[in-house]
Amino acid sequence: MEFILSLLQGLGDAGQTVIDFFSNAPNWFEQIFIYLNAWYVKIRLYMLIKYIEMSYRTAEFLLNEIGFAEFIISAFNALPGELRYYAFLFKIPQAINVYFNFLATGFVMKISRM
């Protein structure tokens, strides 16, 4: 009798396994789409970072081409000695250069998206 009960229990468990398989199949598809979406977001973010790097390099090239950094340095060299010393001590020319690199990068990104 025990054998028959365990056999019926095994058949019932096998049937429940098949039912669980088919009831969990939509969850597998959902997990696949979540995984694919995560890869899409990762690739898109990577491409955006590369686009920003390229825009920054382009902006740097444009500012060097027109001689902006040399203009800032020569303008600060024309200042009186003590004022020039403090300007270079607080790195004001580098700060102005970084700020205009930021503006030029934004300009390049805006023009590139046309």
Task: Record keyword descriptors for this entry.
114 residues, mainly alpha
Helices, strands, pairings?
Elements (H helix, E strand, L loop, with lengths): L1 H65 L1 H10 L3 H9 L2 H21 L2
Overview of this protein structure:
- This protein has 114 residues and is an all-alpha fold.
- The protein has one domain (2-112).
- Helix content is 92%, strand content 0%.
- Helix 1 (2-66) crosses helix 4.
The termini sit apart by 81 Å
Structural class: mainly alpha
As a percent range, the share of helical residues equals: over 70%
Major β-sheet profile: none
Strand content: under 5%
Provide mean pLDDT, rounded.
86
| Rg (CA only) | 33 Å
The beta-strand count equals 0
List SSEs in N-to-C order.
Answer: HHHH
The gross shape turns out to be rod-shaped
Task: Show unreliable segments.
Answer: none
Number of helices: 4
Q: What is the domain tally?
A: 1
In short:
The protein has 114 residues and is mainly α.
